[in-house]
Design brief:
Layout (H helix, E strand, L loop, with lengths): L1 E4 L4 H12 L4 E5 L6 H5 L3 E4 L5 H8 L4 E4 L12 H17 L3 E5 L13 H9 L7 E6 L1 E2 L7 H7 L1 E4 L10 E2 L1 H13 L5 E7 L6 H12 L4 E4 L5 H7 L6 H12 L9 E2 L4 H8 L1
Helix pairs in contact: 1-7, 3-4, 4-5, 8-11
Length: 281
């Protein structure tokens, strides 16, 4: 049995679809049973568990050949990342108790960075499972191309891509969520010992100008990129409902300053930016 958490998201869903296409048994772990109905129709077993509920996770991971752990995203964490700490404590306890054959753990590019930022919650989670006595692969993907979903309305209606990444001609590694899920599915089927790190990027690095040009091609209209001034970020994020915008600002600084990057030589995905944007549009 292959157990997938975060299956209702793009990455977990892509991993599950790839396994099902290969005729493999999949157990979908969801927080709400209603959200598992569509996966049950696809032939999955469904387990209900929150990521901070060790007892429920133990039941969800029972008899698993492999588990794909997709920690729930926390975009506005409380100081000290208590949400991530609670999740990783429960997940580790469940993995130790259920003893699956192997684990693939979704992390992020730049998780090795020592500078504090929003992605530091992945740093602490990686540290918390570093001595887990199971075969573990940590998968660190690049910035998701799919984040452009939030840029489509302004690009379509105003012809503007408002970018927090700068300068506009500086390209950074990006990857399609579907490639991350497909890679995770491949890793789940492999056999290895100990712990290993796999990093993943897309076919080419992408700048804000590249993204604007791709949006123009897909939308069939002119789109220009413009930088959102850094001094406005805190107010903008608070206006959007964030209580603690500093970690997000630090993360963006990390990408712009180049210290949120890969640790080694990443693998390459196959999905191009235009294909992702067409799907989002």
């Amino acid at each position: 049995m292959y157990v997938i958490t975060g299956i209702t998201g793009r990455v977990g869903g892509a991993a599950a679809r790839r396994l099902l296409e290969a005729g493999l048994p999949v157990r979908a772990v969801v927080r709400d049973a209603a959200k598992g109905a569509a996966w049950a129709e696809r032939g999955c077993k469904v387990a209900v568990a929150a990521m901070d509920d060790a007892a429920a996770l133990i039941r969800a991971f029972a008899d698993a050949e492999a588990v794909f752990v997709v920690p729930p995203p926390v975009f506005d964490p409380a100081p000290g990342f208590p949400e991530a700490r609670a999740n990783v404590a429960a997940l580790r306890a469940a993995l130790e108790a259920s003893r699956p054959g192997r684990v693939v753990w979704l992390s992020t590019v730049g998780a090795q960075a020592r500078q504090p930022n929003l992605l530091s919650q992945h740093t602490l989670m990686e540290a918390a499972i570093a001595d887990l006595a199971l075969p573990v692969t940590v998968l660190r993907p690049a910035w998701f191309m799919d984040n452009a979903e939030w840029d489509i309305a302004a690009a379509r209606d105003e012809g503007v891509l408002r970018s927090f990444l700068a300068p506009l001609d500086r390209a950074i590694p990006m990857v399609a969520a579907r490639d991350v899920g497909a890679t995770a599915a491949e890793l789940l089927r492999e056999t290895w010992t100990g712990h290993r790190l796999i990093e993943l990027e897309g076919p080419a690095a992408i700048s804000p100008n590249d993204l604007a040009a791709a949006l123009a091609r897909v939308l069939g209209r002119d789109v220009r990129a413009e930088v959102v001034p850094r001094e406005t970020w805190g107010g903008l994020f608070r206006a959007q409902g964030m209580a603690e915008p500093l970690p997000r600002i630090q993360m963006l600084d990390g990408f712009n300053e180049g210290w949120l990057t890969f640790e080694g030589q990443p693998r390459q995905g196959v999905t191009a930016l235009d294909a992702v944007l067409r799907g989002l549009v």
